[in-house]
Amino acid sequence: MVLIGLRSPLPRRNVYISTNRFFLMDLRELKKETGSLPDLSEHLQKFQQHWIKPIRTNTNKNLPFLQNISENKKQEINDKLFAFQQKLKEVEHAQVVNQKLQEYAKYLIELKLTTLNGNRTKAHYITNLLLNDEFLNTRSLIHDIKYLEKNVKSITYKYHHLNELMQKEAPLEEAVGFMHLPHQEHLKTLLSTSRKQKLLVKYLGQHFVDLVKQTRRKK
Predict the structure, then answer these.
(1) Domain containing residue 125
(2) In this predicted structure, what is the pLDDT of residue 166?
(3) Does 55 map to a domain?
(4) Into how many domains does the chain fold?
(5) Is 180 helix (H, G, I), strand (E, B) or coil?
(6) Fewer CB within 10 A of the terminal residue: the chain, N end or C end?
(7) What is residue 22's predicted lDDT score, i.e. its pLDDT?
(8) Angle, to 10 degrees, between the axis of helix 40-50 and the axis of helix 94-117?
(9) Domain-embedded: residue 9
(10) Does residue 154 fall inside a structural domain?
(11) How far apart are CA 32 and CA 28, in angstroms?
(12) Nearest by Cα to 141 from 64, 90, 205
């Protein structure tokens, strides 16, 4: 049983349309997009609620087949679950990336207004902030987004591997029931948001470069 929505990459056409949609947006629209990013802390929490727990006699009551598999197979699944949970810890602060993007877009709007108004002092302050601020600098933001993307891809791979492992052990009815639990949708949200972050920072960064050039031309 394959999770089509998570295993296969987005079709080329969909990526092209999505990319161009962001390219055509002005700063205010991009800022609105950053504000509409889903709360990843909430989705990660809900994913954990519906995901399987280490196999013990008193866990996973909704998946009774896990109590009937061999001890060796239980140990194998538990070992992979432990590795999976360790990887999940790498993205537990994923919502901070959304917050950084939102702040970054807000300051770009401010930079655009100050550039139009000819306020060089404030424009220089904001430019310096977006280049050098410990929390908000452009290089750090790009690094955080790439780091999150890398870990989300790893989580998705481990998720599929665990699902396939358990589906081999589960009766058909229980396997289908497990795949219809909400954990799949929450992981899909994490994956799609990571992709969206990558596009947003790309086009926000292009606006930043253009605004810095405009500021320098007005000197």
Answers:
(1) 27-47+70-217
(2) 85
(3) no
(4) 1
(5) coil
(6) C
(7) 56
(8) 170
(9) no
(10) yes
(11) 6
(12) 205
Q: Are 159 and 7 in contact (CB under 8 A)?
A: no
Residues with pLDDT less than 70, the chain: 1-24, 218-219
CA gap 25, 37 in Å, rounded: 16
Structure confidence by residue, pLDDT tens digits, 116-160: 888 989 999 999 999 999 999 999 999 999 999 999 999 999 999
Q: Report whether 75 contacts 136 (CB < 8 A).
A: no
Question: To which residue do tokens 């949708």 refer?
Answer: 185
pLDDT of residue 73: 93
User: CA 94, CA 144: separation in Å to the nearest integer?
Assistant: 9
CA 138 to chain centre: 18
Percent of the chain with pLDDT over 70: 88
Could you tell me the sign of the dihedral formed by the alpha carbons of 114, 33, 91, 161, in that order? negative
In a domain, 175, yes or no: yes
Q: Which helix (H) or strand (E) holds 161?
A: helix 138-167
